[in-house]
């Protein structure tokens, strides 16, 4: 069970918990194993206290492979992302205050960021003088429906770096866990800035 991928998820959990982005067992993480399977966090575990035994393997449809653990309900969104883009190697889903509040302040389905130096933390950006668009899906407890909305949106225009779920949190990803962590940290910083800017303008 001890391998680089499972260790990377456990380590990400410690760091994310230290940032306060996954309170009260919220959130879930995953890492791609191969074309048809991934490690995901089991349901209900505190993300700062994960061990490799709190992870299970699922196939590309989110079905459990050889484990008695229960996967998170949101596993379907992780496996949808892996199916949509072969270059995605890790997905981190957080329930931070900034993503929760900002996704409620922004009424449209797209958060537009502009003018921040930290946009350069997102792969492909080399200037503050560009526009970063982050899609916002409305929250639902129907993960099949949300996964389908993600696929429909992606078919029109592939998403980059992450997306928000309104009043709920952020999904961030990268080609590997290192890049997923950088995108998560960059987006969380940008969301905190934008939330403050919106509130100050009110
Ligand atoms: Zn969630």
TrEMBL record:
UniProt keyword annotations, A-Z: Amino-acid biosynthesis, Lyase, Metal-binding, Methionine biosynthesis, Zinc
Cofactor note: Binds 1 zinc ion per subunit.
Residue span, Class II aldolase/adducin N-terminal domain: 7-195
GO cellular-component term (any): cytoplasm
A Gene Ontology biological process term: L-methionine salvage from methylthioadenosine
GO molecular function: methylthioribulose 1-phosphate dehydratase activity; zinc ion binding
Cofactor: Zn(2+)
Residues that coordinate or bind Zn(2+): 93, 95
Pfam families to which the protein is assigned, alphabetical: Aldolase_II
Listed EC numbers: 4.2.1.109
Function of the protein: Catalyzes the dehydration of methylthioribulose-1-phosphate (MTRu-1-P) into 2,3-diketo-5-methylthiopentyl-1-phosphate (DK-MTP-1-P).
Pathways per UniProt: Amino-acid biosynthesis; L-methionine biosynthesis via salvage pathway; L-methionine from S-methyl-5-thio-alpha-D-ribose 1-phosphate: step 2/6
Catalyzed reaction equations: 5-(methylsulfanyl)-D-ribulose 1-phosphate = 5-methylsulfanyl-2,3-dioxopentyl phosphate + H2O
Gene3D superfamilies, A to Z: Class II aldolase/adducin N-terminal domain (3.40.225.10)
Protein name: Methylthioribulose-1-phosphate dehydratase
Lineage: Bacteria, Pseudomonadati, Pseudomonadota, Gammaproteobacteria, Oceanospirillales
Source species: Neptunomonas japonica JAMM 1380
Similarity-based family: Belongs to the aldolase class II family. MtnB subfamily.
InterPro entries membership: Aldolase_II/adducin_N, Aldolase_II/adducin_N_sf, MethylthioRu-1-P_deHdtase_MtnB
């Amino acid at each position: 069970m001890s391998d680089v991928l499972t260790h990377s998820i456990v380590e990400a959990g410690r760091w994310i918990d230290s940032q306060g982005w996954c309170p009260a067992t919220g959130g879930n993480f995953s890492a791609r194993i191969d074309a048809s399977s991934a490690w995901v966090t089991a349901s209900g575990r505190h993300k700062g206290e994960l061990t490799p035994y709190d992870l299970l393997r699922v196939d590309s449809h989110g079905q459990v492979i050889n484990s008695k653990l229960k996967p998170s309900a949101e596993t379907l969104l992780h496996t949808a992302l892996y199916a949509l883009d072969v270059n995605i190697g890790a997905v981190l889903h957080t329930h931070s205050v900034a993503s929760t509040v900002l996704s409620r302040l922004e009424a449209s389905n797209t958060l537009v960021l502009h003018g921040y130096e930290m946009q350069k933390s997102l792969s492909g950006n080399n200037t503050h003088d560009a526009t970063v668009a982050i899609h916002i899906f409305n929250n639902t407890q129907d993960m099949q429906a949300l996964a389908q909305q993600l696929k429909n949106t992606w078919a029109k225009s592939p998403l980059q770096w992450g997306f928000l779920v309104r009043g709920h949190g952020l999904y961030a990803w990268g080609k590997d866990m290192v890049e997923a962590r950088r995108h998560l940290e960059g987006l969380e910083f940008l969301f905190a800035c934008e939330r403050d800017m919106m509130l100050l303008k009110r």
